[in-house]
């Protein structure tokens, strides 16, 4: 499996890292994800077929809970104006707006990925791009693992609010944050693994070809990274604001061209 990642400076030393996903190939719920508790039970405890390991069972359970949370969120989003569900949805949007864009980026990296296509402005050095990716991957793996443990510890404490005759918002929020940090940890560790393997590989031809503007050939071994310097992305970066980095129009044009989420990209302007 391969993924396309777009990298570019957005404001001073702040760089944007975002996965490009073509809307035509977006998928809904995986057919392998159980939709009912009975299916979940059978997937985890069934003795038929290939026996799955503990990690795969955990992932099936987490995906099941994730789909339930997504459906519940959709119900809140479609609730009539002025209702309690609608107000809870508004509160959820405010909380989600505080989630850092790097976390969203790491969550978009699947664990079964084996190749990354890196799109970056042609004026940047590909070695610098790879170094920045390695840095954020290492930093993300440390930070999100720490927050994962912290959120997991808070889950039993927030469950005591179940006795109140109101929706247990703290519990569901901490549950979401636990899941989110778990996915971000997986994505950052996978990204770090690929970067480390690529950096330890004595064959640096992909970097050298990116620097010289020469594309790889089919005779070369399949690389973990494919650097794609983009002249078009470089031109779009010219539409800047002197103080606040890229303008909203420039961000919108880049997002439309490379299939990025403009809201997530804009967060990088003020991300530390």
TrEMBL record:
Ranges where the record places region Disordered: 202-222
Keyword field contains Secreted: no
Highest taxon listed in the record's lineage: Eukaryota
GO CC annotation terms, alphabetical: mitochondrial inner membrane
TM annotation in the entry: 147-176
InterPro entries: Mit_KHE1
Keywords: Membrane, Transmembrane, Transmembrane helix
GO BP annotation list: potassium ion transport; proton transmembrane transport
Pfam families named in the record: Mit_KHE1
Keyword Transmembrane part of the UniProt annotation: yes
Name of protein: Uncharacterized protein
Organism of provenance: Erythranthe guttata
Record lineage: Eukaryota, Viridiplantae, Streptophyta, Embryophyta, Tracheophyta
